Amino acid sequence: QILAVVVFAVGGLSYYNNTDNIKMESASHLAGRAQNIFINGNLDEAIVKFERVLADYPNTPGAAQSLVYLLNDAMTKNDIEEAKRLLNENDGYINDPHVLAAIYKLQGDISLTEADFSTALKYFHKAENIAEENPVRAGFQLDIAATLLAQNNYENALQTLEEIIDNEDVGFNEKNIAEELIAYTKQKMGI
Predict the structure, then answer these.
(1) Are residues 66 and 101 in the same domain?
(2) Is the terminal CB of the chain with fewer CB neighbours within 10 Å at N or C?
(3) 156 is in which domain, residue-wise?
């Protein structure tokens, strides 16, 4: 009986792993086809295929790829409501840190355009915490500083900007932007 249970357990696990692998391959294949259709200029057909991958194969790399294209399409059309819907429906399904950081940044940008500064800061901080590379992290810190400036929170903005300047691994472009924002902040503070 023990042998039968072991054989049944191993068989069940093998079946489950094989099913999961097939699901991942199918999602990647369909997302790749949709991407090719998108590149060839048939945007409407590609969008339909990306939506299908997102609906039929959630939590797969193909779904993450599809979400990126669908968000890009929504933002290109300036359809903020569609972008919000996609973000809300797929919250928690993306595991890739780079994609997740970009999604948090997009959510922060949307909140910022709606003058919801506290929510924007929340998302920019999430993106910053995920970012592993200094140039990417510095970009999120600049977003944080700009949001703090929009709130007239000059002290915290100055502190965030000085962190960028003090980081030796940050590139010149980010440091130049930070220096310009520091000058603006100090002028506003009367320093």
Answers:
(1) no
(2) N
(3) 96-191
